[in-house]
Each structure stands twice: as structure tokens, then as C-alpha cells.
């Protein structure tokens, strides 16, 4: 029987290597762990054959090629060979691979996290209300795998790839990944109760794994993600540049990443992937909204979420549960909240999702944030009903016109707006289109462009903003910047969340 350990956070069991400069330099000052394994960053993306040829040229054996999130590969070789490889002009850097390991204890209290993230303040009301189940979103769990047969997943959990055994069965024999997946999308334990869950196994039964395997998983997501998508990474270790680069590149490809801050009570900026600026980094709080003593903090932490005594799915059998502590437990609350946002706004970029999460969070709630913004994660309010104004509004030469939509009965702040615009005009490049919120905030949707001589505007514009009250009159303002052409606003549709 496979070992089933109680896992919470992740720490790196060795110091970080140095990132080489031009010419590249291999860090061979201490023995890599796993022994003889190196991560090689190249100046251009390799094919599998070219990566293997380069590794073998210096006496190495190729293990994995990275082709989407990070150009490079991992290989086994001697320290001397790594030094020679680093001098090759095709190489950016060579670093020893490092081992990642989990640690923690099991606790008994019942879960309370769902009850906390859907309301503004204490005391909790004993219920969790959610606007959608996010059935159109996929959550990728880079962890110890998932027990996909667990009843709380209702058949929505599947294996992506196992980077430990190098096969397609990412079953969980450690328990950490199943717990995380349950908080993201379990029917009973989850924030997004209909999200599709995909397991990417990078940690073995003992909770250990390597940066090379994690980078390979990030590379896999970048190449294969079914969007809209969110990735949860509930582990952290001292800063490792190749991993940070891979995560940043994957985010740039359009995938939102939520990562745990780490459990050392230290500055999260010194950890990977917590220090990746474009990722959403999450610290942990307890039941009184105080920062958990173990939680990393500092300016790289974007949000806090419940992370003490969190009950979720276990692996003892297909209905098992367990309670755990850690920023590993906090991050999936936010990954689930991100899935809810993506469900309503599947076209949202990672930056827009991060902005919406920040706008929905409660400021000044977390006590002792230790240099981090004291924002407590909240699920965003549901969208107001979609409203459309279909009345034609004439656009005269060099004139400015306004069309309005009034919203009533929409409580809560606006964090996300989608504006679908249809304008009939022979020269759309003449037009400037803007949205004006009820509080007077102006967001430009389209600028004029004298080189664009095509006709008509038919587009949907996602807008990120923070307006205290969604209720009021929203305006679409259109300005014609040149003479000799007229047109009209045909219709526009407003969705406010």
C-alpha cells in the first residue's frame, strides 16, 4: 500500500542555485538533489531531439524537454559536464535541480473556510452562498495528484499527467493534492462546486518532488490548458529563477495562477513561486481573521484566505475527509474564487482576474498582515442582469453622443464590466468609444485610428474597475473625430459584476 502522509505546505530541502549570466555559468558548488540532475535554460526553444543531442554532447542524459513555458531541459550529468555545458553558446544558465518536500500535521476541527469567504465580516452565518458552480472552467492542480474516484468530485476530476512516474495516472498517494482539489471544487468542500479538475502529479508518496518536474508540469499546462483555466500551486521553496520564469510565461499565455505564500513566517518575496509578480499569492488566516503565525507575508502576498483547520477530501477511501493547516489550504479558496470569476467572464485575462479578486476582497480585515495588504479573499458578487439598450442614437460629424443604461437593485461594488458594442459607421477609425460608470469614472474602450478605414464597430470589451455601488446610470459615450461620415449606435449590452 502506498504511504498516505499528512501534508500541509512545501519547503525546499536545499539552497537555491545561482542564475547564470552571459556566458552561462553552472552552479556546481554543492551536489544537486536529486543527485546529478540539472535544469538547463536555453536561449531558444529546443526540439526533443536537439535537447537530447545537446545533453549527450556533454555526457548527459536528457530527462525532460521544456518547450512552452521555459526554453530548456532537465538532464542527468556530472558537475564537470554541467560546467562544460554552461559554456555552450546556446545555453542561458545551468542550475542544480532541487528537491521539494511537504511537511505538516493533521488536526480535527471542522472546516469553516467556505462560510467565511462569502461574507464581509464576522460572525459567520453558518452558510455558503455562491453565484455559479463554474462548470465551464478547468482548474489544474499541480500537486501530489488527485484521488479522482472520490465522491466529492462527482466524476469531474481527471488525470492530466504524472511527472513522478511519467505516465497518465496522476493518482494521489500522499493526500495533499486531493485535499487542495476538494477545496477548489468539491461538491461539499469546494468553492467552485462544478469546476473541472485536472491532476498534474509532481510530488511522490513521500511528499517529495523536484523543481524540474514542477517546471515540466507548468510547461504541460501552457501547451494543453483548456481555457478558461486556473492553476493552483500549493507549495513554496526558496527562490528558483527557472520556475519563476516558467510560471510568468504561462501566465502570459492566458492562464491564471494562484500560489501559496509559504509556511515559514517569512517574507514571501524570497520564495518560489510565491514571488512571481503576475501570480496571485495567498497567505493564511485563522478563524478570527488574524494572520496564521506560520504564514509567510510581506508585499508579495496579494490576499489572505482561511488556512487553519480546513476540512476537505481525503484519500483513505472514496468518501474520506481530513482537516489540515497551511497556506496550501488558503490558496485553493482563492483558486476557487478565481474559477467563479472566470465562469462569468471566460474572456478575462489573468491580470483582470487578479484585479477582480483584489477588488472583491475585504480591506483592513486581516490583523497582523506583517507587511502584506490586509485583504481577506471574498467570492465576487454575482453579475447583475444583462441589460441592453437597442435604441438607435445618431452620430453626427465631429459630434459626441451618449446612450444610457440604468441599473437598480444591484447591491455591492462593481469589479468587472463587459460591454458589447454595435455601431454602424462607414469609418470606424474615426470613433472614440468610452464607458462612464455611475461615479463618473471613465474607461476608454476604443481609440480613434486614422489608418483603420473599415466599417462598423462590433466588439465586446472587458473592463476592470472598482466602483463602490453598481446601482446607477452607466453611459456609453461615442465621439466622431473627423468630418465626412456619419453613423449611429445600433445597440450596446452591459454586464456588471
Automatic annotation (TrEMBL):
Could you tell me which Pfam families the record lists for this protein? Inhibitor_I9, P_proprotein, Peptidase_S8
Please tell me whether the keyword Lipoprotein is annotated for this protein.
no
Give TM segment ranges: none
Lineage, opening ranks: Bacteria, Bacillati, Actinomycetota, Actinomycetes, Micromonosporales
Record-annotated P/Homo B domain positions? 375-497
- Signal peptide feature range: 1-26
List the Gene Ontology MF annotations in alphabetical order. serine-type endopeptidase activity
Give the InterPro entries listed for this entry. Answer: Galactose-bd-like_sf, P_dom, PCSK9_ProteinaseK-like, Peptidase_S8/S53_dom, Peptidase_S8/S53_dom_sf, Peptidase_S8_Asp-AS, Peptidase_S8_His-AS, Peptidase_S8_Ser-AS
User: What cellular component terms from Gene Ontology apply here?
Assistant: extracellular space
GO biological process annotation, one example:
proteolysis
According to its UniProt record, which protein family does this protein belong to? Belongs to the peptidase S8 family.
Disordered: annotated span: 90-110
Question: Which keywords has UniProt assigned to this entry?
Answer: Hydrolase, Protease, Serine protease, Signal
The UniProt entry, under PROSITE patterns, shows:
P_HOMO_B, SUBTILASE, SUBTILASE_ASP, SUBTILASE_HIS, SUBTILASE_SER
Which residues does UniProt mark as catalytic? 143, 176, 328
**Gene3D superfamilies tied to this protein:** Galactose-binding domain-like, Peptidase S8 propeptide/proteinase inhibitor I9, Peptidase S8/S53 domain
Keyword Ribonucleoprotein attached = no
Q: Which domain of life is it from?
A: Bacteria
What SUPFAM superfamilies does the record tag this protein with? Galactose-binding domain-like, Protease propeptides/inhibitors, Subtilisin-like
Task: Return the protein name.
Answer: Serine protease
Amino acid at each position: 500500500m502506498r504511504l498516505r502522509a499528512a501534508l500541509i505546505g512545501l519547503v525546499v530541502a536545499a539552497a537555491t542555485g545561482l542564475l547564470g549570466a552571459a556566458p552561462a555559468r553552472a552552479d556546481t558548488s554543492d551536489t544537486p538533489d536529486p543527485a546529478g540532475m540539472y535544469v538547463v535554460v536555453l536561449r531558444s526553444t529546443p526540439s526533443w531531439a536537439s535537447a537530447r543531442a545537446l545533453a549527450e554532447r556533454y555526457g548527459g542524459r536528457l530527462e525532460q524537454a521544456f518547450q512552452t513555458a521555459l526554453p530548456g531541459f532537465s538532464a542527468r550529468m556530472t558537475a564537470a559536464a554541467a560546467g562544460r555545458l554552461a559554456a555552450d553558446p546556446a545555453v542561458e544558465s545551468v542550475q542544480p535541480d532541487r528537491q521539494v518536500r511537504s511537511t505538516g500535521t493533521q488536526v480535527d476541527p471542522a472546516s469553516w473556510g467556505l462560510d467565511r469567504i462569502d461574507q464581509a465580516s464576522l460572525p459567520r452565518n453558518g452558510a455558503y452562498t455562491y453565484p455559479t458552480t463554474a462548470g465551464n472552467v478547468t482548474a489544474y492542480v499541480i500537486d501530489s495528484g488527485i484521488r479522482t474516484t472520490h465522491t466529492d468530485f462527482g466524476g469531474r476530476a481527471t488525470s492530466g499527467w504524472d511527472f513522478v512516474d511519467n505516465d497518465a495516472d496522476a493518482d494521489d498517494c500522499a493526500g495533499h493534492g486531493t485535499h487542495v482539489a476538494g477545496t477548489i471544487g468539491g461538491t461539499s468542500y469546494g468553492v467552485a462546486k462544478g469546476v473541472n479538475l485536472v491532476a498534474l502529479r509532481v510530488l511522490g508518496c513521500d511528499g517529495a518532488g523536484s523543481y524540474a518536474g514542477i517546471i515540466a508540469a507548468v510547461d504541460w499546462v501552457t501547451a494543453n490548458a483548456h481555457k478558461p483555466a486556473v492553476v493552483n500551486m500549493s507549495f513554496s521553496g526558496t527562490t528558483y529563477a527557472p520556475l519563476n520564469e516558467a510560471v510568468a510565461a504561462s501566465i502570459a499565455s492566458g492562464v491564471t495562477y494562484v500560489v501559496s505564500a509559504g509556511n515559514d513566517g517569512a517574507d514571501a518575496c524570497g520564495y518560489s513561486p510565491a514571488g512571481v509578480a503576475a501570480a496571485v499569492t495567498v497567505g493564511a488566516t485563522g478563524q478570527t481573521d488574524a494572520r496564521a503565525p506560520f504564514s509567510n507575508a510581506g508585499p508579495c502576498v496579494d490576499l489572505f484566505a482561511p488556512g487553519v483547520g480546513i476540512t476537505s477530501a481525503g484519500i483513505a477511501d472514496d468518501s474520506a475527509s481530513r482537516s489540515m493547516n497551511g497556506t496550501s489550504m488558503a490558496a485553493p479558496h482563492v483558486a476557487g474564487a478565481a474559477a467563479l470569476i472566470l465562469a462569468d467572464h471566460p474572456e478575462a485575462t489573468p491580470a483582470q482576474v487578479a484585479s477582480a479578486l483584489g477588488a472583491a476582497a475585504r480591506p483592513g480585515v486581516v490583523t497582523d498582515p506583517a507587511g502584506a495588504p490586509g485583504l481577506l479573499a471574498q467570492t465576487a458578487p454575482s453579475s447583475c442582469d444583462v441589460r441592453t439598450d437597442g435604441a438607435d442614437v445618431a452620430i453626427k460629424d465631429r459630434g459626441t453622443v451618449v446612450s444610457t443604461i440604468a441599473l437598480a437593485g444591484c447591491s455591492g461594488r462593481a469589479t468587472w464590466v463587459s460591454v458589447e458594442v454595435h455601431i454602424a459607421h462607414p469609418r470606424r477609425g474615426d470613433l472614440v468609444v468610452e464607458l462612464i460608470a455611475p461615479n463618473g469614472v471613465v474607461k476608454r474602450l476604443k481609440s480613434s485610428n486614422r489608418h483603420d478605414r473599415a466599417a462598423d464597430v462590433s466588439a465586446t470589451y472587458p473592463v476592470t474597475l472598482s466602483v463602490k455601488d453598481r446601482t446607477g446610470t452607466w453611459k456609453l459615450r461615442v465621439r466622431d473625430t473627423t468630418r465626412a461620415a456619419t453613423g449611429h449606435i445600433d445597440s450596446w449590452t452591459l454586464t456588471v459584476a
